[in-house]
Design brief:
The protein is an alpha/beta fold. It has ten helices and nine strands. The chain has one domain: Alpha/Beta hydrolase fold, catalytic domain (Rossmann fold), CATH 3.40.50.1820. Strands 1-2-4-3-5-6-7-8-9 form a nine-stranded mixed sheet, sandwiched between helices. The N and C termini lie far apart (40 Å).
Length: 263
């Protein structure tokens, strides 16, 4: 287990391989652990890193400061500070839900640190029942917990997360939905948005069809659910490697199993 001190926070991470850096950022459920199969596959060409974000896994859990410590900007500053500590000037990113939000926010705050971004379940289509904010957060957190139970790589570490880190992360995705959409149109980095066609929490955002920059791609794995990197690992890993290695990532090929692609 590797630990870096970022400011006053202890941040856990793991690393494999050699080459250009690729940073994996997990979502609201689980920890770095569910990225391990993809890290192993990519490690023959890249130096892969996976972090536990603040409040998750073996990273710090500042419960007394939860309302500020777990905000998106703070999580983003943690990742930027970790890159400084590690001496990583620039990297590719693969992020899932919350991790995708952090990668996009970092690309806007400090664009020189970010190259290509593969976003899994970027939560612009998260649509909870119309309830008061605390109730909406609780409803989403409960549903997320049920999804986490399906995967042995997710469930144990999901139970170790600070519930406030989960709920505040969900709350920001709900409250800042319009910003999340706007951010996609402001980034000048290669983007790939990937969704599971059967994700019960974050369905594919078909309203984006035709609204993205020509350099960005929206892909849907028809049989995928909330964790396509675990449900269809070989497909996910091949797509990730293609996206990171093609000279022009906007020309990524639509394999037979990727049923739909939008621009």
């Amino acid at each position: 287990m590797s630990i870096a001190t970022v400011g006053e926070r202890l941040i856990h991470y793991e690393a494999l391989g050699r080459g250009e850096p690729v940073i994996f950022l997990h979502g609201w459920a689980g920890s770095w652990r569910y990225w391990l199969p993809t890290m192993r596959t990519l490690s023959h060409r890249f130096r892969t890193y996976a972090l536990d974000l603040l409040g998750f896994g073996d990273s710090a859990k500042p419960r007394r400061e939860a309302e500020t410590a777990y905000r998106l900007e703070q999580q983003t500053e943690i990742v930027r500070g970790w890159m400084e500590v590690m001496g990583i000037p620039r990297a590719h990113f693969i992020g899932h839900t919350l991790g995708a939000m952090v990668a996009v926010r970092l690309a806007l705050m400090d664009p020189d640190r970010v190259d290509r971004i593969l976003m899994v379940g970027y939560p612009i289509s998260l649509d909870p029942p119309r309830l008061p904010a605390p109730n909406a957060r609780a409803w989403l957190a409960e549903r997320l917990g049920r999804l986490a139970q399906v995967h042995a790589e997710v469930h144990p570490d999901h139970g170790r997360a600070d519930p406030q880190a989960v709920e505040w992360g969900l709350e920001e995705a709900i409250r800042r939905r319009e910003e999340l959409i706007e951010w996609l149109q402001r980034i000048d980095r290669p983007l790939l948005l990937l969704y599971g066609g059967r994700d019960p929490l974050i369905p594919p955002p078909l309203f984006l069809n035709g609204a993205l920059d020509p350099s960005a791609r929206l892909m849907i794995l028809e049989e995928g659910e909330h964790f396509p990197m675990l449900e269809h690992p070989a497909r996910f890993q091949r797509l990730a490697e293609d996206f990171l290695t093609l000279p022009d990532p906007s020309q990524i090929a639509l394999k037979e199993e990727w049923r739909r692609r939008f621009r």
